From TrEMBL:
Compositional bias segments (type: Pro residues): 1-20
Transmembrane segments: 32-52
Gene Ontology biological process terms, A to Z: Gram-negative-bacterium-type cell wall biogenesis; peptidoglycan metabolic process
Domain DUF218 intervals: 66-188
Originating organism: Nitrospirillum iridis
UniProt protein name: Uncharacterized SAM-binding protein YcdF (DUF218 family)
Length: 218
């Protein structure tokens, strides 16, 4: 006996997805706005703190170290480095981030220093292209020399980021910051000066990237 045919039952159609309610979209938008405002507030507070702590003068000018390290980027830095070396603040001067083809005599002439007096104690580093490279290049040189302390010479606005990189690359080395004041960087009322404000904001963002990179081990 043939069983009766089973007629397939029609399946109920799936209900269309419920569209988000206007109230839910508005609540989500408000949350995102609050998050964005909070992050912006933190960034602004950090910027103001960063700017307030840019060094206005060198730290402990009379201290002696094994080496003086100058990061290229301004004639004031080179002159300061040569003056410190001439004053006996260290045994050697290391200039990091020098262009290929530039020699010690050329840098001494640029800074109006006396070649015969300082040439023997100046070493140039050619491999660094940025602040991270400066720190790594200096670390290799310091290790080769067996030095345990250095005076770091760079522009005042650049010093916070430089210290982040150098302290990470040279954790066991004593670092004495020696900030140079570029004449075109106006720290008093810096927000009124477009060039200085742009420079400080840019440097603050780079500082944050360097700090977070080391904080998260990237």
């Amino acid at each position: 006996m043939t069983p009766p045919a089973v007629t397939p039952q029609p399946q109920p159609e799936a209900a269309p997805p419920e569209a988000p309610r206007p109230g839910a979209l508005l609540a989500r938008l408000r949350r995102l706005t609050w998050v964005g405002a909070a992050l912006g507030g933190l960034w602004l507070a950090g910027l103001l703190t960063f700017a307030a702590h840019i060094p206005r003068a060198p730290e402990d000018e009379s201290a002696t170290t094994d080496a003086i390290v100058v990061l290229t980027g301004g004639s004031e830095r080179l002159e300061t480095g040569f003056d410190l070396l001439a004053a006996g603040r260290a045994r050697k001067l290391f200039i990091s981030g020098v262009y290929r083809g530039v020699d010690v005599r050329a840098l001494l002439r640029m800074s109006q220093a006396t070649p015969t007096a300082l040439e023997c104690c100046v070493v140039l580093g050619y491999s660094a292209d940025d602040t991270l490279g400066n720190a790594q290049e200096t670390a290799r040189w310091m290790q080769a020399e067996g030095f345990q302390s250095l005076r770091l010479v760079t522009a005042n606005y650049h010093m916070p980021r430089s210290l982040v990189e150098f302290r990470h690359a040279l954790p066991d080395v004593r670092i004495v910051p020696h900030a140079v004041q570029p004449p075109n960087v106006r720290l008093d009322g810096w927000w009124h000066w477009r060039g200085t404000a742009g420079l400080i904001i840019s440097e603050y963002d780079k500082y944050l990237v360097a700090f977070l990179r080391h904080a998260f081990g990237l």
